[in-house]
Task: structure prediction
Amino acid sequence: MTDRIARTVETAVPERSRASALAQTLLRSEWPWMLYLAFVILLVVFSFASPWFLSIDNFLNIGRQTTLVSIVAIGMTFVIIAGQIDLSVASALALSGMAAALAMAHIANFWFVGALAGLGTGALVGLINGALTTRLAIPSFLVTLGTLSAARGLAMMVTDTKPVIITNERYFRIFGEGNLLGLPAPIAWTLAATIGGVLLLHYNIFGRRIYAAGGNPTAALYSGIQIKRVTTWAFVLTGALAGLAALVLSARSHAARPDVVQGMELDVIASVILGGCSLFGGRGFILGTLLGSLIIGTLNNGLVLLGVSSPMQLIIKGAIIVAAVAFTKR
Amino acid sequence: MTKSFGGVRALRGVSLEVWPGEVHALLGENGAGKSTLIKILSGVHSFDGGAIEIDGVPVAFNSPAESREAGIAVVYQDLSLVGSLSVGANLMLNREPTSRFGFLKKRQLMAEAEDFLKRHNIPLDPRAKVGSLPFAYRQMTEICKALMGRVRVLILDEPTSALTSDEEQILFDAVETVLRQNVGVIYVTHRLNEVFRISHRVTVLRDGANVGTFNTSETDMKTLVAAIVGPKHATAEAKEVLEGEALHERQPSARSDGHGLLILTSVVNDRLRGVDLSLRNGEIHGLAGLIGSGRTEILETVFGLRPIDRGEIRLDGSSLRIRGPAEAIEKGIALVPEDRQVQGLVLDHSIERNFSLPRLPHFSWASWVRRGAETEETEAAINRLSIKAPGPSTRVRNLSGGNQQKVVFAKWNNKRTRILLLDEPTVGVDVGAREEIYGLVRQAAQSGAGVLVASSDLSELILLCDRISVIVDGRVIVTLRRDEFRDAEHLHQFIQISQTDQGQAA
Result:
């Protein structure tokens, strides 16, 4: 009796499991192929819907528009894989921009003075985030909620909310308007951040430690990983990349303003999660993040070209982000 | 009461019949289908063919809630308690007495919980917060929770894996109480001696199929082991025994030429109250004691997880001052922790990544990971430790308990390890893998490392150790040489006697 049942079951199993295995690969793979599919579908839909969409100029446009989010999201990937979150990136970006502009205006009008001031300020905000999170054992959500407010306040206070004009041509060329290696500077910097991120996360022991710290902090501790140090470095990296984004932004607009990119942290986090990172840590990859930010950028661009009203744009964007995460998340 | 099973994916036609008022032990190696069977009974998985009957009535359920409704209660290995609530609140979870307006009647809840605990003779305080209880008591709470309400079949999944002998007895008494209510108990375990202590009949599973059902009184340990392991392992088993015997001859020499590798002198911290202990090169040194006695804490202190207030630890004659596991590992100290899933492994990551984690600098050049070397060494370790896995990139989550534990061992199975600290090294590990792990431990000692083993399983300590230190209340009460401890019974008495002495002294 049992024999007969067993036989029928054995024949019934393979078909079902093959289909489910395929679905499993598509829906819940470590590398979310659905994400690539979603990106391609998005491109095809917009190409048919708008005559202006499919052109090199427009793609460069998308690249430029997503630069800020992409660069910061690379850093955020490290923080999220380490099992943390950084809400202060937009404020850190604004503060770093102010620091860069003020340094060039008051210390010395050289491009590298501005660059150092910008990157350093971002890294410092990251260091504060990391130190408070790990040394005082406050959840990073709360710490960075605090620095989100404080850094923005500081950025506004230094000039009493007035913008600071930048006059250094060299600075504009390097970070904003020139060409590096044949690419527009903002895109070149995005690429550089991506390559650096890939190397650091996927080929360096720092990346391994980040994964372990987020994947299982206790097991990482028992394996001799110094979680506090590693986590702090992830925040510093994110801060420094917010600084880099600030350089790009201020070079593009020839000025630093304290009220820029408010709410950008949400786009950044959405990109990272869309790109396949687990909010619980331990899982994710850099190229996914880049693709995530490109999807959001393409969405913004395409919806504008289609003439969708801006309230409607927000609604559509929100719905697509949630749907995409639902499909790609495991 | 009858239950029968047809084919399920991981099960190929398993039948199991449990009578009211009997303890029916379920045995089998990891992966034999015990867990799957239990998950089906508890409604977590569905089954493809066959039938389940309770009291002759066919039942079907699609969720754990429906299974519970039908009278099947399960106590899982991993606990399902709310740590921030009291014992009473956990017991009454989802059946809280409420007033007409839906408000919680707290006093009545506690009274009901207390009454229940008293009736079953269970030494738990219903007001104690579950999160602050030692593991054994949390498990007891879990069992009580399963017993609340109408129960026809109680399933215990390795209930004693973390219990000490005393607590085991309490558990067995509780099971007796349940039996008198004509409940059938399915008892899943890896410990054969428990089968003979408590069960009436035994069913052995292998590769998803029945091997046989035996009346406990008519069978013996040998028969059961043979049934569990199956014919293909028989030769390996024999070899293992031979190696074991050869080892016993080796031990005297190892003991005589070993000198002090690790010496603890009146070490005091939050949990230890003056520990004196010495570990020699090539020695396997056991730590016996009840749960909460300080066994685990000694290992954690040596590994740098607990700071020392007073006293001294010497390694190779020089004073050891470490501030964390990183520095301990640097000195060649390794810990295989008690809970491999929480402390030992990153479950979502591959074998390879877990393997290289404690030695990342070794697997890198100027901080860049040498992936070739990493994969190569992982493959070698998989072969050396005979870890059953498709390859180095297999996720650890997908391995069975025994193989997971071998991965934890693999992390430390190298020449740099000079002191190997083991905390309950074979909990939840099947018979075959257990022997292999013992082999690894002996190998480590043979190559000159000192091994410190803490275990609740006294026969395990007797089998492995050159010396055993009995820990009571944060102190080493006595250290016995191999010729001074005879059997588990004898050692157990030692622990009990020292325990009462301590009680009188205090």
Summary: Residues 2-28 of chain A form the longest helix (27 residues). Strands of chain A lie at 164-165, 179-180, 183-184, 255-256. The interface with chain B takes residues 1-3, 5-6, 8-10, 12-13, 203-209, 211-212, 215-216, 218-226, 282-283 of chain A (CB under 8 Å). The mean pLDDT of chain A is 87.
